[in-house]
């Protein structure tokens, strides 16, 4: 349409758009049809904007008006709304320009208040078209939901009260909701749960609800963990609120039972809750369907509990207790099943049946007790059920306790030749009972070997019942906290006596200590609830109980140290005392005891299989053969073998005795209680876990009852708790962080005490540890020591580890959780004012702001790093890494608060502090790299550790400087070349400032520079180049080309060092990272081609610099193949492939954009790294023939660019005709 005829047409469109506000609703569909048919590229955006502004639906606003079933079959919605939707759908289906314009417009909206109900209908209508548009809608919807740009209120506005309007688009609503349910993001799945509930409530017909249930059951059986979890949550929500409506169609839910075997414990609980809701909450007077559901559920759990297969028994235990939970709720007096028994009687019968079925197996009974304890912690059951559980748990006293007279054993006890003795009596003569461990362990070898495995979980159940019936108090069993333990006499641990013990006796000692350890861990779990936030005991009683708990913690550290020392020489697989998914199928008994193990710790699966194959081969005498190891040969020859050789993780060394090698493993080594128990950590999954409440002991001190106020002897106790806390924080449990929030102040106290010990020394009270240990009831054992330096530095490091992990929690940066972040930062604030330090940042920081707190925490760590470095380089690295985590936390917070909006006035943290802190972090890393590690007092920093430390420090240094490329260029061209090769070891000519850069550390520096150089290039290709392409800024292009040139020069300098450093590992690093650099550099060729015309000289110089590196790489590869250096040859194929691609990319670049002889491809002479020409057909080893890597024999005129030729000898596919032609004349 052109000329004068177009004007009236466009005028009509303008008039039609203006009529959107005033047209009668009955004419609205016709007006929309005209506008949508008239849409083109010039006016489509205007039309869509006007429709969004003025189109409104007139359906009923009362959500209940259409939920009444009496209205079924009647016209309950305005026919105009249906006509409008039909008009929109028909035009969108056949005119893609409208769909694309709508999606562009909706994508540009970034605030939830700007979205309208019509937007939801647009998305649903476009989604119904299918194809690529459907996927675009799903992606947009997911993004907006995750970013909270689209609220559930809009969908509620479209669904509630518009049943007839939604009915025709019900499938599209379900499809969108199903897609959100399958997303990995929690927000998307929560949104889907809300939509499912809205659709279920609005559509009361059986067909629609069956469709919803079918989708949920399908996702429950998908096997995808997040989908299964969310679908089960939705089903639990439905059955808890609409159980009566679901009973008639419960057959569609029964399909969930087909997937029970693949569910986790949490999901199993949800499944049984679903059927409990249907059976109990859906109970009605006239309906017998719920009784059948209850009867079927009881039959299922009874069969599962009685099943000999442990997997099904686990399901039955969980199901039984969920049914007991439902039956034990006093708010639901109706009958669960069709039997005449009350709900309470049904629950007691189930409990008796479950306990009787599990008595023969240990782990199922442990699981049952633990699940029952957790149930009592969360739910208020009927008093009859709690009383019965209390009677059953009360059997603990008769099974595991023994009476005392005035705190002493009634009669002297010797079990299988081992003399017993009372350990760790905190109540003295007032103790009425003791834990009878040794006699029960001795009897377990003859009968009922599993009784002691159950007693920790049974005590847990007893303590929970006591709290439930005594208003949270444990006053009825508080005598157990201080009662002594009947254990083997400390005389057994003497060197002479230990050698005399038989294998069975040693196993008894180990198991006695093991059960004592787990008993004390359960005491800490139970009684730490009394010293937390409780009001029913006085402060004096709370302090006395905390002092006892700290003494028990000291007992625990001693026992774990002793058991770990025994397991260093005597191998024993400890029995499982705690249920976990990984060990449920085992039988729960300890394996054979080997007093002279050849290897300890976990072995690879392949190694175990090989060992099994050997041991399963009998010789003619019927005995099993075992292949001797090199350690066997050493011992047979009388050579002493240290523990470091047999177990690299052990810090202890066995005593040497060439005359009696068989006795070496029969001695318990020196036990340092400050060291982590390496052998126990390998089997920690078998132990009873410490619960979160036990960490409340970090806030208490026993100084009031000790010989002095010196905190040194308390630090090992806090170190033990912090190590366990660090392990739990690895799982990123947000609930755990909330529970330890009151302990943030204790972290600062621990840091100050540990730092004071490192700074001032350890001579304040030499006998403090011994006196506190004696007051705790620990026996004197001569080979038990405590390294004070190790305790102080380890404690400092554990606190920093906890701090870093807590800062890494993503939820802490949500607006609602910023007070927690503020409290964490306040922990590390310096005592002096740090305002002057921020004087260079304008505007100045305000006291109490988050950026001020960030700066204070950083300055506190920066101030102590010098003193820490003089003690341990590992400790200094931990401080640097914590400083880096603070900087990363600032970056995360700024990104969340600003989100691209640089003028966010409500931001809690300023963007200007980030470069300030990064600059200081780089300076701190530089200082550490310039520090001489030999000045550290801690000898635990091995050369291997120092290499890892230096590598991390270099990464921090390079990533937090003003210009990474400039610093890399300086280090690679000026600093690293000063390091002599390993042959000369002459360091007199080294004049750089980095004390950590020595011939022994050259490889660490060399590899780190390669990694960072390649990483910088990869980041530039991925992030910087696309932005510059979009902006097309000439200055930015020139700056980026300069940066690329610097990185190429760094590579050339690093590769050139291979001429001096001829170690194989150095050459292997050069080939590996050289190939990676070239491969990543090729991704930037599209950018180079688009800007070659204006920057040809820069790009040619850059490629020439890269050519210097590729030539040397070719030479290294050639020499490695000739010398058969496998460390290098394994990396050659990938590198050669990248070099070949570079060759032809450069040829194409120069051929298409230049004239004259700029590019020349020819055959190169074969030269070695020193530049000498060598024969291409002769090698000192082997008969490989390889011509690649030849250096160039052509002239090197600046007007020509000569690149390496790659021949067919390397397996590369190269056009031979082109090579022949180029070898004669070269390409112009």
From TrEMBL:
Pfam families in the cross-refs: FancD2
GO CC aspect terms: condensed chromosome; nucleus
Keyword Ubl conjugation: yes
Location of the region described as Disordered in the Swiss-Prot/TrEMBL record: 584-626, 1180-1228
Biased composition (Acidic residues): 1205-1228
Family: Belongs to the Fanconi anemia protein FANCD2 family.
Name of the featured protein: Fanconi anemia group D2 protein
Lineage of producing organism: Eukaryota, Viridiplantae, Streptophyta, Embryophyta, Tracheophyta
């Amino acid at each position: 349409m052109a000329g004068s005829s177009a004007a009236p047409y466009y005028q009509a469109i303008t008039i039609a758009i203006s009529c959107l506000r005033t047209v009668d609703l009955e004419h609205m569909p016709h007006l929309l049809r005209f506008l949508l048919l008239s849409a083109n590229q010039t006016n489509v955006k205007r039309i869509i904007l006007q429709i969004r502004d003025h189109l409104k639906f007139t359906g009923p606003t009362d959500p209940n008006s259409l939920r009444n079933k009496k209205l079924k079959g009647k016209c309950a919605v305005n026919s105009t709304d249906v006509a409008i939707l039909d008009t929109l759908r028909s035009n969108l289906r056949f005119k893609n320009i409208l769909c694309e314009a709508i999606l562009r417009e909706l994508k540009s909206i970034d605030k939830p208040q700007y979205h309208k109900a019509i937007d939801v209908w647009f998305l649903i209508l476009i989604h119904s078209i299918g194809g690529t548009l459907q996927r675009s809608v799903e992606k947009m919807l997911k993004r907006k939901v995750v970013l909270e740009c689209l609220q559930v209120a809009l969908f509620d506005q479209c669904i509630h009260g518009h049943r007839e309007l939604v009915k025709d688009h019900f499938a599209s609503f379900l499809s969108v909701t199903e897609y959100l349910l399958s997303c990995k993001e929690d927000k998307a799945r929560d949104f889907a749960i809300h939509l499912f509930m809205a659709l279920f409530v609005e559509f009361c017909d059986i067909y629609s609800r069956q469709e919803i249930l079918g989708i949920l059951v399908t996702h429950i059986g998908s096997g995808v963990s997040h989908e299964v979890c969310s679908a089960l949550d939705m089903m639990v929500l439905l059955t808890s609120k609409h159980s009566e409506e679901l009973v008639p169609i419960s057959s569609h839910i029964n399909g969930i039972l087909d997937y029970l075997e693949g569910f986790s414990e949490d999901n199993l609980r949800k499944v049984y809750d679903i059927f409990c809701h249907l059976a109990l909450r859906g109970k009605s007077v006239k309906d017998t369907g719920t009784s059948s559901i209850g009867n079927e559920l009881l039959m299922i759990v009874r069969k599962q509990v009685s099943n000999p297969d442990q997997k099904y028994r686990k399901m039955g235990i969980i199901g039984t207790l969920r049914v007991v939970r439902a039956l034990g709720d006093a708010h639901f007096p109706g009958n669960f099943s069709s039997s005449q028994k009350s709900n309470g009687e049904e629950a007691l019968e189930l409990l008796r049946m479950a306990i009787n079925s599990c008595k023969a197996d240990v782990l199922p009974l442990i699981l049952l007790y633990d699940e029952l304890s957790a149930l009592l912690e969360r739910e208020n059951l009927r008093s009859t059920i709690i009383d019965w559980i209390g009677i059953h748990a009360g059997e603990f006293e008769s099974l595991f306790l023994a009476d005392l007279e005035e705190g002493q054993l009634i009669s002297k006890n010797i079990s299988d030749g081992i003399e017993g003795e009372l350990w760790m009596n905190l109540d003295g003569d007032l103790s009425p009972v003791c834990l009878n461990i040794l006699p029960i362990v001795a009897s377990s070898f003859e009968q009922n070997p599993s009784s002691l495995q159950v007693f920790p979980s049974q005590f847990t159940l007893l303590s929970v019942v006591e709290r439930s019936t005594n208003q949270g108090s444990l006053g009825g069993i508080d005598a157990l906290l201080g009662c002594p333990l009947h254990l083997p006499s400390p005389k057994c641990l003497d060197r002479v006596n230990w050698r005399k013990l038989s294998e069975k006796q040693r196993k008894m000692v180990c198991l006695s200590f093991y059960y004592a350890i787990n008993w004390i861990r359960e005491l800490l779990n139970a009684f730490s609830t009394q010293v937390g936030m409780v009001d029913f005991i006085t402060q004096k009683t709370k302090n006395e109980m905390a002092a006892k708990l700290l003494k028990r913690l000291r007992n625990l550290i001693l026992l774990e140290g002793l058991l770990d020392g025994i397991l260093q020489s005597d191998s024993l697989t400890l029995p499982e005392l705690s249920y976990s998914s990984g060990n449920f199928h085992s039988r729960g008994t300890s394996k054979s005891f080997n007093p002279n193990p050849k290897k300890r710790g976990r072995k690879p699966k392949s190694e175990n299989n090989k060992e099994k194959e050997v041991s399963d081969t009998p010789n003619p005498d019927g005995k099993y053969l075992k292949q001797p190891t090199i350690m066997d040969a050493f011992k047979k020859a009388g050579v002493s073998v240290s523990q470091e050789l047999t177990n690299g993780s052990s810090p202890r060394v066995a005593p040497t005795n060439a005359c009696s090698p068989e006795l070496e493993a029969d001695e318990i080594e020196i036990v340092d209680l400050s060291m982590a128990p390496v052998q126990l950590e390998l089997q920690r999954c078998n132990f009873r876990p410490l619960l979160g409440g036990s960490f409340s002991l970090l806030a208490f001190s026993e100084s009031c009852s000790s010989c002095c106020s010196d905190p040194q002897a308390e630090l090992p106790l806090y170190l033990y708790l912090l190590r366990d806390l660090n392990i739990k924080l690895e799982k990123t449990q947000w609930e755990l962080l909330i529970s330890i929030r009151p302990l943030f102040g204790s972290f600062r106290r621990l840091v100050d005490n540990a730092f004071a010990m490192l700074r001032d020394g350890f001579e304040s009270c030499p006998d403090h540890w011994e006196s506190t240990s004696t007051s705790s009831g620990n026996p004197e054992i001569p080979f038990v020591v405590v390294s004070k330096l190790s305790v102080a530095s380890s404690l400092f490091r554990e606190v920093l580890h906890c701090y870093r992990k807590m800062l890494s929690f993503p939820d802490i940066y949500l607006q609602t959780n910023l007070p927690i972040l503020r409290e964490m930062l306040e922990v590390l604030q310096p005592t002096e004012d740090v305002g002057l330090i921020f004087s260079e940042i304008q505007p100045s920081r305000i006291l109490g702001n988050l950026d001020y707190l960030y700066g204070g925490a950083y300055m506190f760590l920066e101030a102590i790093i010098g003193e820490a470095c003089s003690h341990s380089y590992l400790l200094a690295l931990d401080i640097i890494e914590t400083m880096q985590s603070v900087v990363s936390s600032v970056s995360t917070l700024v990104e969340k608060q600003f989100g691209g909006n640089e003028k966010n006035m409500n931001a809690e943290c300023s963007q200007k502090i980030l470069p300030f802190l990064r600059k200081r972090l780089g300076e701190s890393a530089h200082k550490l790299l310039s520090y001489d590690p030999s000045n550290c007092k801690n000898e635990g920093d091995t050369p291997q550790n120092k290499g890892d430390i230096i590598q991390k420090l270099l990464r921090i240094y390079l990533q937090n400087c003003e210009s990474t490329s400039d610093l890399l260029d300086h280090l690679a061209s000026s600093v690293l070349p000063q390091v002599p090769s390993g042959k000369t070891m002459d360091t007199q000519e080294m004049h750089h400032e980095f004390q950590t850069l020595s011939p022994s550390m050259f490889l660490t520096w060399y590899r780190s520079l390669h990694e960072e150089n390649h990483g910088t290039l990869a980041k530039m290709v991925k992030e910087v180049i696309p932005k510059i392409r979009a902006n097309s800024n000439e200055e930015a292009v020139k700056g980026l080309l300069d940066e690329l040139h610097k990185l190429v020069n760094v590579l050339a300098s690093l590769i050139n060092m291979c001429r001096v450093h001829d170690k194989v590992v150095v050459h292997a690093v050069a080939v590996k990272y050289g190939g990676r650099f070239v491969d990543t550099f090729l991704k930037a060729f599209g950018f180079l081609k688009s800007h070659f015309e204006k920057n040809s000289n820069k790009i040619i110089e850059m490629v020439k610099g890269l050519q210097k590196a590729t030539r040397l790489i070719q030479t290294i590869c050639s020499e490695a193949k000739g010398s058969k250096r496998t460390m290098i040859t394994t990396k050659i194929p990938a590198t050669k492939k990248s070099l070949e691609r570079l060759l032809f990319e450069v040829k194409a670049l120069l051929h298409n954009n230049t004239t004259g002889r700029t590019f020349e491809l020819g055959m190169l002479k074969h030269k070695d790294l020193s530049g000498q020409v060598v024969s291409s057909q002769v090698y000192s080893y082997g008969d490989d023939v390889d011509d690649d890597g030849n250096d160039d024999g052509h002239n090197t005129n600046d007007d020509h660019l000569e690149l390496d030729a790659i021949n067919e000898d390397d397996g590369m596919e190269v056009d031979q005709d082109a090579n022949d032609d180029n070898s004669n004349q070269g390409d112009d």
